[in-house]
Amino acid sequence: MAINLLSELRQRNPIVLNLANLVTIQDVANGLNALGASPIMSAEVQEAEPLVQLAGAVCLNLGTLTTSQVAQMHAVGQFAAQYQKPVVLDPVAVGAVTYRKRVALELLAALDVTVIRGNAGEIAALADVDWQARGIDAGTGNGDLVAIARACAQRFHCIVILSGPTDVITDGTRVAKVLNGTPLFQRHVGSGDLLSSIVAAFLAVSTDPFEAAQTACLVFAASGELVARQLTANRPATFGIDLIDKLSLVSGPELTAIQKLE
Ligand SMILES: Nc1ncnc2c1ncn2[C@@H]1O[C@H](COP(=O)(O)OP(=O)(O)O)[C@@H](O)[C@H]1O
Ligand SMILES: Cc1ncsc1CCOP(=O)(O)O
Ligand SMILES: [Mg+2]
């Protein structure tokens, strides 16, 4: 775990190219900006090449996909391989909608994805493990989350983050866990989307994608935990706002003091 990656990120202010969903696009932009990265969103395939050249990393989010956005994702992913830029895939609701799973599998077959970040329902679907996914949420299942994440990483030859009460990070062999967090993340739409783009931001400033993925999970989950400790009641909207502020204020020592890692 490299907490000094956070200061590296803030110093270098990496540009993160996001093919975002329509629901949480502004929260993702503000969250990245607050943390110390520089977000850019795009919905135009014609500008794929210059944007990838400009960016330190790319995040592809399947949340509100359209046929033209999927074509843009293929183009951006191919340029990312050409210019050696890391790619994060957020497979929103692939466990609930067969069409989305097909799109995700086609992207994974065609592109060099560095990290897949999804909840248990999404990662189980990609690993072909039986699971009762529910829309954008993780749903329910009784499989072993480490085994599911590992199977997904081995199948697609990439790093997998299976997020939830415990975040499991694996490259198919190594496994790390971040136990920080708060149930308020689940009450606020867009938590996963922002985490995926923050993973891209850390990939942009690191030569070790496993360490970048682990650090992103800690910074995000622990920031949320620190915010929740200050809230007097269950306030999902206030949590979302305060989380963005906390991403800009949180320090390395603060994170080290509360980190729960395995
Ligand atoms: N019940 C929970 N307790 C603590 N942290 C959680 C919980 N559920 C989700 N998180 C945190 O929320 C963030 C987003 O993950 P998740 O909710 O799994 O994504 P998504 O929004 O895509 O379903 C992660 O940092 C994860 O650690
Ligand atoms: C509600 C909704 N519908 C399509 S995408 C989306 C947001 C998903 O956000 P997250 O998975 O980060 O909670
Ligand atoms: Mg999600």
What would a concise description of this structure say?
The chain has 262 residues and is an alpha/beta fold. It contains twelve helices and ten strands.
Assign an overall shape: globular
- Calculate the terminal CA-CA distance, rounded to whole Å: 11 Å
Q: Number of DSSP strands?
A: 10
Largest sheet: 8 strands, mixed
* Tally of structural domains: 1
The CATH homologous superfamily name equals Ribokinase
Number of helical stretches of at least 4 residues:
12
In which order are the strands of the major sheet placed?
2-1-3-4-5-8-9-10
State Rg. 17 Å
Mean pLDDT: 97
Identify the bound ligands: adenosine-5'-diphosphate, 4-methyl-5-hydroxyethylthiazole phosphate, magnesium ion
Task: Supply the CATH architecture.
Answer: 3-Layer(aba) Sandwich
Q: Describe the oligomeric state of these chains in a short phrase.
A: single chain
CATH C-level category: Alpha Beta
- Order of helix and strand elements from N to C terminus: HEHEHEHEHEHEEHEEEHHHHH
What secondary-structure arrangement, pairings included, does this model have?
Layout: H1 4-12, E1 15-19, H2 25-35, E2 38-41, H3 48-54, E3 57-61, H4 67-82, E4 87-90, H5 98-110, E5 115-119, H6 120-126, E6 132-134, E7 137-140, H7 145-156, E8 159-163, E9 167-170, E10 175-178, H8 184-187, H9 191-204, H10 209-230, H11 236-249, H12 252-258
Parallel strand pairs: 1-2, 1-3, 3-4, 4-5, 5-8
Antiparallel strand pairs: 6-7, 8-9, 9-10
